[in-house]
Amino acid sequence: MLEIRDLECGYGPVAALKGVSLDVGEGELVALIGANGAGKSTTLRAISGLVKPKSGSIRFAGQDITGADPAKILSQGVAHCPEGRRVFPYMSVADNLAMGAYLRKDPIRVRQDYDRVYSDFPRLAERRHQAAGTLSGGEQQMLAIGRALMSRPKLVMFDEPSLGLAPTIVEQTLGIIKSIRDGGATVLLVEQNAFAALELCDHAYLIETGRVVRRGLGKELIADPHVRAAYLGG
């Protein structure tokens, strides 16, 4: 479904990605792990059009989306749930969800998706008229996930969904991400908790200083001595 080849991106003179190649198959949950600053978030931002690649290619569902406008990429079925949630704090929960569906032209199905999100996240239903900025961190993460789902994506990208959350909320959030994959969507996950990500995923890539240095099944990377020493506490 997603094919990235020899991707190079940077911020001014600083090279963030140095020839990254990876594949995400339809229906898979693929994890990107690595240290802060390794290039994981830049990879997601390049896929969603927020960072323009210097070279390389990104293909989604057979279409070249390299450097395309973010709205076009979203309309093709790629949703990005960003690091830090990035909800609109002064807008209501309902209006935040509406922003996730702003490109859609099927109001009946949009209404159905509102109901589905509220069913999956009852706390959001209770707070639908509340300003998003007054929600707890866990509730804001639920809202960010719900907003991404409102676009009816084929691929959902999650950037550090557990960051700053209490352990019980982390477990709940990762369970929701697994259920999204089990429901038929494809998932690309960047997650600071490497062990949890590797247990959850089908395949994984380890990125270090802008390069993919390991790839394989989640269980293979859990058993890899380098991964264990550097990211799993030995």
UniProtKB/TrEMBL annotation:
Residues 26-219 form the AAA+ ATPase domain. Pfam families: ABC_tran. One of its GO terms (molecular function) is ATP hydrolysis activity. One of its GO terms (biological process) is L-amino acid transport. CDD domains: ABC_TM1139_LivF_branched (cd03224). Gene3D superfamilies: P-loop containing nucleotide triphosphate hydrolases (3.40.50.300). Keywords: Amino-acid transport, ATP-binding, Nucleotide-binding, Transport. Belongs to the ABC transporter superfamily. This is ABC transporter ATP-binding protein.
